[in-house]
């Protein structure tokens, strides 16, 4: 039963807050969110999605990092007999049905399963999109180096898009992986793994190469870059429900991050 003394947040409240942050129809927005930070919602997390949809689309596009909860990127590390068992039985990545990575919260799965959401075909770097340019955003996502050129992140920049943090911490900005990928910095650590994908209705196992995005960097942190960016007066800050929120211009943030990285870690 609802507590009459609790302050509840409505979809109308959320739409007002989005407009105050500078979100309007027609924009391309990549969203990162924390449901806990947003507060008590009348209608639950679904009203967050509906507020975003009603504010941005039909002329705009929403994006979100989804990943894959059951990615078997560890299979090469298994004992040979166990590895073969996985080869024979592990289901492939199917963009239409594969669950989002649980680490990214309930909203990622709400976004994935929302009517009209499409999803890119890279299992680990999988991006969902909903709205006018969703099909273009997710199309032809490279399997190798899936955060770099040709990725949905590159298309976010190309389309003049934004990154919106709704109570999410600064270290969750997936777009900064794109800046890392294109920055001319000293040799980057790469990872090689196997993954099952769906191709022409059949399960196949493929070898995938990418830069290592799964461990903390020894020399810098994403929040360090984002904090420096905000300290220069860039970005638009505000609230969304009870959550402190930030809107970044994607191209400007990438340009800033590439310069920041190259000044500190560029090739001699």
Description:
The structure is a single chain. The protein has helices at 11-21, 35-38, 46-56, 80-89, 106-113, 134-138, 152-158, 175-182, 222-231, 250-265; strands at residues 28-33, 61-65, 118-119, 127-131, 162-166, 190-199, 202-211, 236-240, 243-249. With 268 residues, it is of the alpha+beta class.
- What order do the helices and strands follow? HEHHEHHEEHHEHEEHEEH
Instruction: Give a count of the beta strands, DSSP E runs of length 2 or more.
Output: 9
Enumerate the spans where pLDDT stays under 50 for 5 or more consecutive residues. Answer: none
What kind of oligomer do you see?
A: single chain
Judging from the principal axes of the Cα atoms, what is the shape?
globular
Largest sheet, strands/sense/barrel = 7 strands, mixed
Q: Could you tell me the mean pLDDT?
A: 94
- Through-space gap between termini: 63 Å
Strand order of the largest sheet: 3-4-2-1-5-9-8
Question: What's the number of helices?
Answer: 10
Strand portion? 15-25%
Helix content: 25-40%
Structural class: alpha+beta
Radius of gyration (Å): 19 Å
What layout of secondary structure does this protein have?
Blueprint: H1 11-21, E1 28-33, H2 35-38, H3 46-56, E2 61-65, H4 80-89, H5 106-113, E3 118-119, E4 127-131, H6 134-138, H7 152-158, E5 162-166, H8 175-182, E6 190-199, E7 202-211, H9 222-231, E8 236-240, E9 243-249, H10 250-265
Helix pairs in contact: 1-3, 8-10
């Amino acid at each position: 039963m609802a507590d009459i003394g609790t302050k509840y947040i409505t979809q109308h409240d959320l739409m007002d807050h989005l407009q105050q942050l500078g979100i309007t129809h027609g924009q391309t927005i990549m969203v990162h969110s924390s449901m806990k930070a947003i507060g008590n919602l009348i209608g639950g997390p679904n009203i967050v999605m509906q507020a975003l949809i009603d504010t941005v689309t039909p002329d705009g596009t929403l994006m979100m990092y989804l990943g894959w909860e059951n990615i078997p990127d560890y299979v090469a590390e298994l004992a040979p007999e166990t590895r073969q068992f996985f080869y024979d039985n592990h289901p492939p990545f199917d963009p239409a049905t594969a669950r989002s990575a649980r680490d990214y919260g309930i909203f990622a799965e709400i976004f994935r399963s929302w009517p009209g959401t499409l999803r890119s075909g890279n299992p680990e770097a999988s991006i969902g999109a909903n709205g006018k340019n969703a099909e273009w955003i997710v199309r032809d996502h490279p399997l190798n180096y899936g955060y770099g050129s040709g990725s949905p992140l590159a298309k976010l920049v190309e389309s003049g898009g934004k990154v919106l943090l709704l109570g999410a911490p600064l270290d969750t900005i997936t777009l900064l992986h794109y800046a890392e990928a294109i920055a001319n910095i000293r040799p980057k650590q790469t990872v090689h793994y196997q993954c099952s994908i769906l191709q022409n209705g059949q399960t196949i196992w493929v070898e995938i190469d990418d830069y290592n995005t799964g461990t903390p960097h020894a020399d810098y942190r994403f929040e360090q870059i984002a904090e420096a960016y905000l300290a220069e007066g860039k970005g638009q800050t505000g609230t969304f429900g009870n959550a402190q929120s930030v809107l970044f211009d994607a191209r400007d943030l990438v340009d800033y991050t590439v310069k920041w990285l190259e000044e500190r870690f560029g090739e001699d």
